[in-house]
Structures are given as structure tokens and as C-alpha cells.
Q: What sequence folds into this?
């Protein structure tokens, strides 16, 4: 994991980070699937501006990626 921040001119700032995580199947069909997992990566950044030393406005963005093996399937729970 790597992260940091930079103070820019005119009270602007930049914060950034990158890291990794494990992706695993929530409901594996076999023991091999249960033991298998894949590493994923995330990259994030935030650009903001401070006003009067108290208020802050910022824009944040991030992206994630991972690869799945043929034995793993992506399962995205939908909750209401």
C-alpha cells in the first residue's frame, strides 16, 4: 500500500493512494474454489480546496481491478 498527500498553491491539496485486496467467492462450489482467491488492486485520488481554513470542497475518484480464474465467478449481492 502506498499513499500520500501534497499541499498545492492557493489552498488546493491532492491526496492519493494505491493498495491491494483479495477477491474470493462468497459461495464456493468446491474446496478448490474456497481455498482460491485472487489479488486485486485499487487506485484512488482526491483533489480539494480549503476555504477560510474551515470549509473544504473536494472531488474523489477511484478504480479497482481484479482477474478471476475459470473456477471463480463474480457474485454481486443486490440489497434493497
A:
Amino acid at each position: 500500500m502506498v499513499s500520500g498527500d501534497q499541499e498545492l498553491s492557493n489552498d488546493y491539496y491532492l491526496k492519493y493512494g494505491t493498495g491491494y485486496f483479495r477477491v474470493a467467492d462468497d459461495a464456493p462450489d468446491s474446496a478448490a474454489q474456497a481455498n482460491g482467491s485472487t489479488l486485486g488492486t485499487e487506485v484512488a485520488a482526491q483533489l480539494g480546496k480549503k476555504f477560510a481554513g474551515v470549509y473544504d470542497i473536494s472531488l474523489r475518484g477511484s478504480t479497482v481491478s481484479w482477474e478471476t480464474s475459470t473456477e471463480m465467478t463474480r457474485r454481486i449481492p443486490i440489497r434493497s
Remarks:
- Residues 70-76 have pLDDT under 50 and may be disordered.
